[in-house]
Amino acid sequence: MLTEAIAVLGMCVVLWAYQAIIRPPPPKICGSKKGPPITSPRIKLSDGRHLAYKERGVPKENAQFKVIVVHGFDSSKDLYLPISQELMDELGIYVVTYDRAGYGESDPNPKRSVKSEAYDLQELADNLHLGPKFHVIGVSIGTYTTWACLKYIPHRLAGVGLIVPAINFWWPSFPLQLCSDEYKKQPMKDQWKLRVAHYAPGLLYWWMTQKWFPSCSIMARDPLIFAKRDFDILKKMLEVPNPDEHKIRQQGEHESLYRDLMIGFGNWEFDPMELKNPFPDSEGCVQIWQGYQDTLVPFQLQRFLAKKLPWIKYYEVPDGGHLIIHDNGLCNTIFKTLLLKEEPIII
Predict the structure, then answer these.
(1) What average pLDDT is seen over the chain?
(2) CB neighbour class for 129 (10 Å; exposed up to 12, middle 13-18, buried from 19)
(3) Which residues are within 8 A (CB) of 40 and not within 5 positions of it... i.e. 6 or more apart?
């Protein structure tokens, strides 16, 4: 009896720990009884979920170029995107940004994967009647959606930009030694965060919320992750306040931030370095833009990837950090270079 009682007590402790510490709380879904209100236009997906979006630039009916921009970690459809109105008018650019699943006002997707992100984007394009082809620009960890588009819907793409694309250290085509060397350059707290996200994703909520050890440089806004040019960009960004910034995590950090980490650094269904050129006749182009001083994304691994995929045009900004898409001049340059398939005059 005593042995059975101890076993039952042990099971109760385990269940309590799972419920109280390990298991994430349910998301606060927008529009639900206790959830945040819906204030943005949304489209309904085939599985019943909704994606919130925001339009910029010229009216899509008059647009020469239709561009979907995919936001990064701890961001949203309201990301600071300083493309000039003059350039959008001159080239006829229509831009749509959207909250990825679980972010902002887009419904969470507990089955979210690299593949599902591509089809979310495709359904957004179809619901907004963007036509058979469109451009896609992904930023930071949001580029796992962009890689997925190259894998699963290449026939829908007119051109692709990957801006400081996050590197998954477990992609099989990377040399083990190179990967290990660059991984060890990451802050120790980020090394552990990535290990947990990759090897034990079921424990990630606990790891990210425990108070004994620091867990994430980005969420802590650690100054060490920013290059000098990043600080200059941040000053300009603060001059344009985002009144909806509080909405980014409003449905819960697990369904937005932590699931991003589990997917972006988990085991992918494909290896990006085995992708085929979606534009064999040069009817479009794929570009990577990388900051040489980016401490979050190692340029050494980015260069290796670009050599493995010679059909990708690789541009490296010598004094650039992780925030190059938010630089006024560089943002214009990135859009113009991608859409017109021209070499940039200034980086």
Answers:
(1) 91
(2) exposed
(3) 52, 53, 54, 77, 99, 104, 105
